[in-house]
Design brief:
Layout: H1 9-61, H2 67-78, E1 81-86, H3 94-101, E2 106-110, E3 114-120, E4 126-132, H4 137-151, H5 157-166, E5 173-176, H6 185-192, E6 197-201, E7 206-212, E8 222-229, H7 236-276, H8 291-341, H9 345-379, E9 387-390, H10 391-402, E10 410-413, E11 420-423, H11 425-442, E12 446-453, E13 457-464, H12 498-508, E14 512-517, E15 524-531
Parallel strand pairs: 10-12
Antiparallel strand pairs: 1-4, 2-3, 3-4, 5-8, 6-7, 7-8, 9-11, 12-13, 13-15, 14-15
Length: 538
């Protein structure tokens, strides 16, 4: 099936990463815009909070009959629209109503450049609504005069307390006994005449308003408003912090995407490793229909086909081996009958040869059945029934079994520590016996076994003083029915299955077998490596 671009896993990863990048930058822009909007709204609230408090406090102190007239006169003074509105006449959402109930000023946009300000009166039934088209010098002067007139109603500590009632967090309001510093004589003269002086502070992009309050109290005569700072953009430190946070989000998204692909590849790798180790019942979980999903399905199909072929092969081998036992038994019976019927020495010698061949054929059938049984158990993932095996005692039993069969070979067990390992006793002894028997067939006079205990594995070495195995042929000796044409020929005996059985047994135990040259005896050295397990004895 041809693969389209949409089916490419790597293309999908790239597209996902690109989308994650675009999403992150979109979130960054949205976040910066939201932060800037919140800061602007907070700045506007701080800017209008003191005059709105003055207006609501003044209106609340007036009788209801004279409030509308007073608002109309003050509207001309501050160049703004002032009116009282019933709360029930407005459709306010939950957040706007909540802000008003917390004694906050509600600032809402009105048109392109205008704003509408709202603040609840202390009673909670009406609110003061102010429409501002733009902030001008006349409005600044009018608001300053309004505050000064309101403060002039008290004196001394009462005046300071009254100022504290309307002071907000954004604009400083101060009363002092001396004129403000930094003003020239002309500005001081204007202050003495009762005018409002607006001073610009270019270095800090801010301005301040000053006013001389009427009355005879010398300690609270001078009113200073500000400096009122202009709105500043988002600080660089905060921008860097937001950038770091967004990069962290992007890194997390990319990690999750790559981690997902990597996890699926890791599962494929684990399944391939298990199948390579003989666990042909292993399958991959297919999660989607993309390239990796199709690869998983193909992988499962391959594993099922290999397992089916191997099972059919093992079944055929077992069937053939079992079927061979019947004619072999009949031949053996016939040979014994003929042997009982004749006393001719020549015929008896021929019959003895035939009987030896039958014995070899019977042993070959046993080897084939053992090899087929091991292959079937490892392919089907059968669990071992393990127990704690004393390797030195096992090696001594192997020596006792093989020494009568090879009286011309000296079989030795090297001195060493006691070694115990968790394994299946019968199969492990069969593997060691096959190695020792193979060494005895090719040794000249000596075979040595050595046991070594290491932190994570147990090592069993079987060395002989025979001709050895060429380096180029060492990987071939573990194949079924493999024969070497040089030193290890058919005259040495064997069926070519002993080392294959050893390899199967070690793979079933999770270990391995390898062959190299013996440094002490000069022949071949076969090594069994068996991992240590913490399993309890069966």
């Amino acid at each position: 099936m041809p693969r389209t671009l949409a089916d490419s896993t790597f293309l999908r990863v790239y597209v996902l990463l690109a989308l994650a990048l675009l999403l992150t930058f979109g979130l960054a822009l949205l976040g910066l815009a939201m932060v800037d909007q919140v800061r602007r709204e907070h700045y506007r609230e701080q800017l209008v909070e003191p005059p709105m408090r003055v207006l609501t406090a003044w209106v609340d102190a007036l009788p209801e009959a004279g409030r509308q007239a007073w608002l109309a006169s003050r509207a001309e003074q501050v160049d703004m629209t002032l009116r009282l509105v019933s709360v029930d006449d407005l459709s306010l959402n939950y957040f706007s109503r909540s802000r008003l109930e917390r004694d906050r000023v509600l600032v809402m946009p009105r048109g392109e450049h205008g704003w509408r300000l709202q603040r609840l009166l202390p009673g909670g039934e009406q609110l003061l609504e102010v429409d501002v088209a733009s902030l001008s010098e006349q409005q600044l002067r009018g608001l300053t005069d309004l505050l000064a007139e309101w403060l002039a109603q008290a004196s001394g500590d009462a005046r300071r307390a009254q100022l504290a009632r309307v002071a907000g967090d954004g604009i400083p309001l101060q009363l002092s006994e001396s004129p403000p510093e930094g003003l020239d004589t002309r500005q001081l003269a204007r202050l003495a005449e009762g005018e409002v002086v607006i001073r610009l502070l270019p270095g800090r992009w801010s301005m301040a308003m000053y006013r001389l309050l009427p009355g005879s109290d010398p300690q609270t005569r001078w009113l200073a408003i500000g400096p009122v700072k202009a709105f500043e953009p988002l600080p660089v430190s905060l921008q860097l912090l937001l950038l770091v946070l967004l990069l962290g989000v992007l890194a997390a998204i990319i990690y999750l995407i790559v981690r997902g692909v990597e996890a699926r590849m890791a599962r494929l790798e684990l399944a391939a490793t298990r199948i390579a180790g003989g666990r042909l019942d292993t399958r991959v979980k297919v999660e989607s229909g993309d390239f990796l999903g199709r690869l998983g399905m193909a992988f499962n199909g391959m594993a099922a086909q290999v397992q089916s072929l191997l099972r059919a092969q093992q079944d055929m081998i077992r069937a053939v081996s079992h079927e061979l036992r019947t004619p072999v038994a009949r031949i053996r019976f016939a040979v014994q009958m003929v042997e009982d019927m004749t006393d001719d020495p020549a015929i008896r010698r021929q019959l003895e040869g035939v009987d030896g061949d039958i014995t070899e054929l019977d042993e070959l059938i046993d080897e084939i059945l053992t090899y087929a049984r091991l292959g079937s158990e490892t392919a089907n993932g059968a669990e071992l029934e393990t127990s704690l095996v004393d390797c030195r005692a096992m090696a001594e039993r192997v020596i006792e079994a093989l020494r009568p069969l090879h009286r011309d070979i000296r079989i030795e067990l090297d001195e060493g520590p006691e070694v115990e390992v968790q394994a299946e006793p019968r199969y492990l002894q069969r593997a060691l016996q096959n190695l020792v028997a193979n060494a005895c067939r090719h040794a000249r006079s000596r075979v040595v076994m050595r046991l070594q205990s290491e932190p994570r594995l147990v090592r069993l070495d079987v060395e002989d003083d025979g001709p050895g195995i060429p380096a180029a042929a060492r990987s071939e000796v573990f194949k079924p029915f493999a024969r070497l044409d040089d030193s290890r020929t058919r005259r040495s005996g064997g069926y070519g299955l002993g080392l294959s059985i050893v390899q199967k047994v070690m793979a079933w135990h999770g270990g391995s077998v390898m062959v190299d040259a013996s440094a002490t005896l000069g022949g071949a050295r076969f090594t069994l490596l068996l991992p240590r397990r913490n399993a309890t004895p069966a």
